[in-house]
Design brief:
Blueprint lengths: L1 H14 L3 H20 L3 H7 L31 H10 L2 E3 L3 H21 L2 H7 L4 H5 L4 H24 L7 E3 H20 L2 H6 L15 H26 L17 H16 L9 H29 L16
Antiparallel strand pairs: 1-2
């Protein structure tokens, strides 16, 4: 832990950022990277970005067949650059590794829950590297507990859905997608309490903090039901997609005006957390807002690929009158 703390101090000193600013910077950098990848030429986009059903063709080949390795393999006459790109594109993991995102999320939430209760070494290593400015504008203990519970429930639900609403699949994704996803969920397990570091350093969490002794604030009264509603709608959408025959057009009411309503729900979930976790004197939690930007950009690009796949498979009329993800905007 001492060695790790030293490495963290060196990195933060080099970037002239405290721990919270560094966490925000990670989410923003990841978002910018995804945007940069989205403008790659088609030859690179198909290699590194598209995966799963969206990578399958719409010709006579069965839709469930995995993308052919020969589509990215080099011929003897290929240029060295092409062979390098093809090799990098071949570094893929099974699409089922998505489950690991939520295993990591749940495990990290439990880990940080213990750290916050015990004020452990990992918590101290992070909290003592938060600037005084961030420490003064802090979440309350109740906010920290509520947001921690919400993130834990989100991880548990999604992990349950991965086990129950899944079918065997030969599809694969680029290993960078997998690494970025793991990093995001590990970062989110910190983001939900990071801006409460000032309060957590001032006093430990006690049993009375878990008791509901006062009426919820207006912020909680509005944001928490939105979180629960979005979670329920996303679960319903995932259940419906699982019940469909593989690679068919969804006709559930949730899909009447949206291509991917489950992605819309995902964005609403993180937006509600951003409001729930707003430090005192702030309208919104900027760290979770940065994470929301990553979620919206990542899922927005995935939705665009999904729309193109639907059009290729079912025709342009199948997507008429539908927004990708955000009604009235995108």
């Amino acid at each position: 832990m001492i060695v790790l703390a030293g490495l963290v101090d060196t990195a933060l000193a080099f970037t002239h950022m405290d721990a919270i600013d560094a966490l925000r910077a990670f989410f923003i950098l990841a978002s910018c990277t995804i945007l940069s990848v989205s403008v790659l030429p088609d030859s690179l986009h198909s290699r590194f970005v598209v995966y799963g059903a969206r990578a399958t063709s719409t010709d006579s080949k069965p839709p469930s067949a995995p993308a052919s390795r020969t589509s990215t393999s080099s011929s003897p006459s290929s240029s060295p650059a092409t062979r390098i790109l093809d090799y990098l594109a071949s570094l893929r993991v099974p699409h089922s590794y998505f489950t690991q995102f939520y295993v990591a999320s749940v495990a990290a939430s439990v880990f940080w829950g213990v750290q916050l209760l015990c004020r452990g070494a990992a918590f101290q290593a992070f909290a003592t590297r938060v600037s005084p400015d961030h420490l003064q504008r802090s979440m309350t203990i109740n906010q920290v507990l509520l947001c921690w519970v919400c993130m834990l429930l989100q991880g548990v639900r999604r992990l349950y859905e991965c086990f129950v609403f899944s079918r065997p699949s030969a599809s694969r994704m680029w290993f960078i997608h997998w690494l970025v996803g793991l990093a995001f969920y590990l970062g989110m397990s910190v983001a939900v309490w990071a801006e409460g570091a000032g309060t957590l350093l001032a006093r430990p969490i006690v049993l009375d903090d878990a008791k509901v002794t006062i009426a919820p604030s207006l912020r909680t009264f509005i944001s928490l039901p939105i979180f629960l509603l979005a979670s329920g709608l996303q679960h319903d959408a995932h259940h419906y997609l699982f019940s469909l025959e593989k690679y068919t057009l969804p006709i559930h009411p949730l899909f009447h005006r949206l291509v991917c309503p489950h992605y819309t729900a995902e964005c609403v979930i993180y937006l509600s957390l951003a409001f729930l976790a707003a430090p005192q004197g702030e309208t919104i939690n900027k760290t979770i807002l940065a994470a929301l930007a990553f979620v919206a950009i990542n899922l927005g690009l995935t939705t665009a690929n999904t729309r193109r796949w639907y059009i290729q498979k079912f025709g342009g009329s199948s997507m008429q009158g539908k927004w990708n993800m955000i009604p009235g905007i995108y």
